[in-house]
Amino acid sequence: MALEHEVELIGAPSDAGAGLPGGCDGPAALRAAGLQDALQGAGCRVHDAGDLSGPPPGPAKHRQGYRHLEAVQAWCAQVHDAVLAALTAGRQPLLLGGDHSLAIGSISAVARHCRARGRPLRVLWFDAHADCNSRRTSPSANLHGMPVACLHGIGPPGLSELSGHMPALRPGELQLVGVRSIDPGEADIVRALRLPLMGLPALRAQGARAAMAQWLATIEDEAYLHVSLDLDFLDPDAAPGTGTPVGGGATLAEALDCMEAIAASGRLGSADLMELLPRRDTDGRSVRHALRLLSTLFRSAPQGDR
Questions:
Q1: What element of type H or E holds 294?
Q2: pLDDT tens figures, 5-41
Q3: What is the per-residue pLDDT for 1?
Q4: How far apart are CA 97 and CA 23, in angstroms?
Q5: pLDDT higher than 90, residue 220
Q6: Alpha-carbon distance 223 to 71, whole Å?
Q7: Is the per-residue pLDDT at 304 higher than 50?
Q8: What's the CA gap between 136 and 214, in Å, rounded?
């Protein structure tokens, strides 16, 4: 018997946490390209909750070592509430970004949801970057480079305490995948937090699908799985439409293999698709590939308990 996903789309058109404008156009581009039809074709029931409406970033300014702190906090609070409402309604939230700082809101909501139900939480963070800077280590003060740190208790209280518990994530709950760019000071935080990293060489040595399936087999049967996918996980040849591309990334085939393994496991609870900049996606390939990845990730799987 197939397990049908009941997905709730939540748009978060904000690039307040990023260094380049354009991520705010991501949700509209995904919808215009046929995201709802793609998910329905994968066997999902889709509810579109529309876009959240947060403050514009305003003039570039730093506060306490963070750029656009007030705007990012306001957006993440809205994301948290929308994701928590979808989870409470029994739906699977799919957050459409927007920059990756927004995942502080979605994952804080998932962490709150799991704590209330006594379920273990596991997060797969697909990204070219570790996103684990602090205000002292960040070269830019952009908050999209800090969500992993914030979720582990390193960051401003309005973000690090958003889940109602600090830190939102405990050691070992988040797995970095595909990271290949880490700032020097950030590397110290990654080591101090003992964040596990599955690099692209490890994925390729075993085969991406097999490596991902092996990791999935290690998590608890009752664990809730959240996937946070930054498009710069892909190589720039596959996804040029992103704000901070890094060479040597995953091919589309490798990324699809990862998504297929997750779908086949029947473990998926919720997801983010982040850092799509349509204005840099000159031929539309990043949008097309994002749709393929999402429709593969949410493909109906054999009956199981998410």
A1: helix 285-297
A2: 899 999 999 999 999 999 999 999 999 999 999 999 9
A3: 35
A4: 7
A5: yes
A6: 32
A7: no
A8: 36
User: 92 - beta bridge partners?
Assistant: 7
The pLDDT assigned to 149 comes to: 98
- The alpha carbon dihedral of 85, 33, 240, 214 has a sign of positive
pLDDT at 143 > cutoff 70 = yes
Find the radius of gyration of the CA atoms of the chain: 17
Which of 109, 126, 116 has the alpha carbon at shortest distance from 228?
A: 126
Class level of CATH domain 2-302: alpha beta
> Which of 129, 141, 108, 169 is CA-nearest to residue 16?
141
Coil, helix or strand at residue 57: coil
Sole residue written with tokens 């664990």: 223
CB neighbourhood size of 248 (10 A): 12
Cβ distance 199 to 98 under 8 Å?
A: no
Active site residues: 100, 127, 129, 131, 144, 230, 232, 275
Phi, psi of 151 (to 5 degrees): -70, -20
Structure-token match 């380049």, residue found = 20
Nearest to 214 by CA among 201, 203, 225, 222: 203
Q: Residue 112: count other Cβ atoms within 10 Å of its Cβ.
A: 19
CA 295: distance to chain centroid? 15
The share of the chain scoring above pLDDT 90, in percent, equals 92
For residues 207-220, give the mean pLDDT: 97
First to last CA, the chain: 15
pLDDT at 127 over 80: yes
